[in-house]
Design a protein that fits this description.
By secondary structure, the chain is of the alpha+beta class. The chain is about 25% helix and about 35% strand. Helix 1 (about 30-40) crosses helix 4. It is globular, with a radius of gyration of 16 Å.
Length: about 170
């Protein structure tokens, strides 16, 4: 059985202005290979080129529940973000990371998002990495109509970069 994102009601997919879901399953990697690269916000720019201006939480680079942080992505200036879930992988338990992010302002530029990740080991020496984001606001509605879908493609780049980075570390490239 695979895990699902735990959605706050406000961000429930199908009720927001935009929603994307990306997933990959990879043989030969584990959740413990992926988690340090995902949970350490200072590593994101090394494998995901659509983020910048990262301000890690005061507690350190690893995102923990309750942490505040910020980063720029998809052309937005630094989004004020808060971690809602940060659960490292454990035997029989998937890793979970989720945050909300928002930019206030006039309706044409204000956005409110919830971004969640699940990283779980599957039988057969495989790992499943799922990332989903639900967005509220006029910019989100515009993104939902864009073709090609910039959010879908951007998150796929994030997934692909994360997997590449995990392979590099596993093969001793770090």
């Amino acid at each position: 059985m695979t895990a699902d994102v735990i959605w706050p009601e406000k961000y429930l997919p199908g009720t927001t202005d935009n929603y994307v879901s990306n997933e990959t399953i990879v043989k030969g990697l584990s959740a413990t290979d992926i988690w340090p690269l995902l949970a350490d916000i200072t590593r994101w720019e090394s494998y995901y080129h659509n983020c910048a201006d990262i301000t890690p939480p005061r507690s350190g680079p690893f995102l923990e529940q309750g942490d505040d942080f910020s980063f720029s992505t998809f052309g937005y200036p630094a989004l004020s973000s808060k971690v809602h879930e940060s659960v490292p992988p454990a035997a029989g338990q998937p890793a979970r990371l989720a945050w909300s992010a928002a930019q206030d302002g006039p309706a044409e530029s204000a956005i409110d998002v919830y971004h969640a990740w699940i990283v779980e080991d599957l039988e057969g020496d495989r790992v499943r990495i799922l990332t989903q984001e639900s967005q509220i606001g006029q910019p989100a509605a515009q993104l939902a109509k864009s073709r090609p879908n910039a959010m879908l493609n951007g998150h796929q780049d994030w997934l692909d970069g994360l997997v590449r980075a995990a392979w590099e570390v596993k093969r001793g490239g770090e």
